[in-house]
Amino acid sequence: MVSSRLWDAQLNKPPKLKPFDKDILSVNGNTIEVNGKTRMTMHVGGTDCTMEVLIGDISNDAILGLDFLKTQGCKVDLLKMSWSIHGKICKLYEH
Fold first, then answer.
1. Which terminus of the chain has fewer Cβ atoms in its 10 Å neighbourhood, N or C?
2. What dihedral do alpha carbons 67, 45, 9, 24 form, nearest 10°?
C-alpha cells in the first residue's frame, strides 16, 4: 500500500486509479480508506520494482506486504533487524 500523500506527489502517474472495493484493516482493527489501485514503479532497497499497489490513507509512505516480499524473493532477519531484496541487505527501522 502506498500513501495518498506520496501518490499525490508523483509526477508521472496514470490519470485515474482503478476502483478497489474491499475493506483493508490496520493492525489495530480500524478500516483504512483506500482510494483505488494502480501499477507503479517504486525504488525499494536499491531496486526498481513495478507492482500493483493500493493507494490509501496511511501515515507511512508505503507498507510492503507479504505478497511483495514473496514475489521479490525478500528475506527478513529480525535478529539482525535487516531484510534483503535481490541479494541487497537493507536495515529495518522501528517506529
1. C
2. 20
